[in-house]
């Protein structure tokens, strides 16, 4: 590969479903919420890929916990948002979502259960009316929605949501989220960029351009992505020092947009998970979640929260600056080795699209390699 190579403009770059900065990775699981934020009997509107997605949970009954479901948040009658309604429990229907406008009721599978305005001798049409639903799974305290490429397809998903290591110590210790004015492709590439830190994140406790030196990290393919294999943190990464001991870290990326860092400090663990959820073509939600059984989280949580917020704001500010240039649809130059992970993301995204289109197993295009860069 040449030392530097222009990337075609988004409008002409190749790869399903479309070029870099356009389209989405489909037929896979996206994070939408923490389980603890989806209360029994609740209805909440989300937006994923420009679609209004209602995430709800039925009320607990007979000692069983309520079940999470996902429906298109539009009543097919007059387009009122179903999330503005309520969950009701009627004899013969079970728990349904009641539209606030005319009281139409829909099961958690999207099928219309009742139209109250129909009188007894009028022909029933409920059996033919349905709101679109999505497969939804709760796993490790998180809610994931399976976004299909074909809305008419109702076959079960052919793979499960990701399982993350190091989720310890009960509920998440720290959660921060922010929307970036960016397509998910640019957000992913910014997330895995190893060279921007000394310039964008200039905190005294992190690192600066004056402490830059050469890094060499080994990478290997992993499920739907790649992993920076376990290693001791770099000497200029000051934040790791508060953990004490001799920490070792492993960093993994997985389609469609998950990055996690699993830190081991003797018997203690820290998991820093970042979930990227495409809200629209030009907006991406970044959710950072931390779990740990390390004592430092009890003492340093306010400091850590401040640091995470600062990082998100700095990255968001840089995204806004980048948008000033991207609106002219320029060609982009990516270099080795600092931009190799960004190229891998493109290869993974293309291979996922091709494998789905050709109805064959996904073949990870990543090969083991050691990358070197200054940061």
TrEMBL record:
PROSITE patterns, per the entry: RIESKE
Pfam family, one: Rieske
Keyword Iron-sulfur listed: yes
Protein name, entry field: Phenylpropionate dioxygenase-like ring-hydroxylating dioxygenase large terminal subunit
CDD domains: Rieske_RO_Alpha_N (cd03469)
UniProt domain Rieske: residue ranges: 29-145
Presence of keyword Ubl conjugation: no
GO MF terms, alphabetically ordered: 2 iron, 2 sulfur cluster binding; dioxygenase activity; metal ion binding
Keywords assigned by UniProt, alphabetized: 2Fe-2S, Dioxygenase, Iron, Iron-sulfur, Metal-binding, Oxidoreductase
């Amino acid at each position: 590969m040449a030392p530097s190579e222009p990337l075609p403009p988004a409008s002409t770059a190749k790869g399903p479903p479309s070029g870099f900065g356009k389209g989405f990775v489909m037929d896979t699981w996206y994070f939408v919420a923490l389980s603890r934020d989806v209360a029994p009997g609740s209805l909440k509107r989300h937006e994923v890929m420009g679609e209004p997605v209602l995430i709800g949970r039925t009320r607990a009954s007979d000692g069983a916990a309520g079940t999470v479901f996902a429906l298109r948040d539009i009543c097919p009658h007059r387009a009122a948002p179903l999330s503005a309604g309520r969950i009701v429990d009627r004899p013969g229907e079970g728990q349904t979502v009641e539209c606030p406008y005319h009281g139409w009721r829909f099961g958690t599978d999207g099928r219309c259960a009742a139209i109250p305005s129909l009188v007894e001798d009028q022909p029933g049409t409920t059996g033919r009316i349905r709101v679109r639903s999505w497969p939804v799974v709760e796993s490790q305290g998180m809610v994931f929605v399976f976004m299909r490429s074909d809305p008419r397809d109702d076959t079960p998903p052919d793979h499960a949501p990701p399982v993350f290591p190091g989720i310890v110590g009960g509920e998440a210790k720290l959660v921060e989220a922010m929307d970036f004015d960016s397509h998910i492709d640019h957000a992913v590439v910014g997330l895995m960029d190893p060279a921007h830190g000394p310039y964008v994140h200039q905190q005294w406790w992190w690192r600066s351009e004056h402490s830059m030196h050469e890094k060499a990290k080994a990478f290997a393919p992993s499920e739907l992505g790649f992993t920076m294999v376990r290693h001791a943190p770099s000497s200029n990464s000051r934040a790791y020092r508060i953990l004490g001991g001799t920490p070792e870290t492993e960093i993994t990326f997985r389609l469609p947009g998950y990055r996690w860092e699993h830190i081991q400090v003797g018997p203690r663990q820290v998991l820093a998970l970042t979930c990227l959820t495409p809200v629209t073509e030009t907006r991406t939600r970044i959710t950072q979640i931390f779990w740990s059984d390390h004592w430092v989280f009890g003492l340093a949580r306010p400091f850590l929260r401040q640091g995470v917020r600062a990082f998100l704001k700095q990255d968001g500010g840089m995204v806004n600056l980048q948008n000033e240039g991207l609106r002219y649809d320029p060609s982009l130059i990516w270099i080795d080795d600092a931009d190799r992970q960004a190229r891998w993301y493109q290869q993974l995204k293309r291979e996922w699209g091709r494998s789905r289109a050709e109805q064959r197993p996904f073949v990870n295009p990543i090969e083991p390699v050691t990358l070197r860069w200054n940061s």
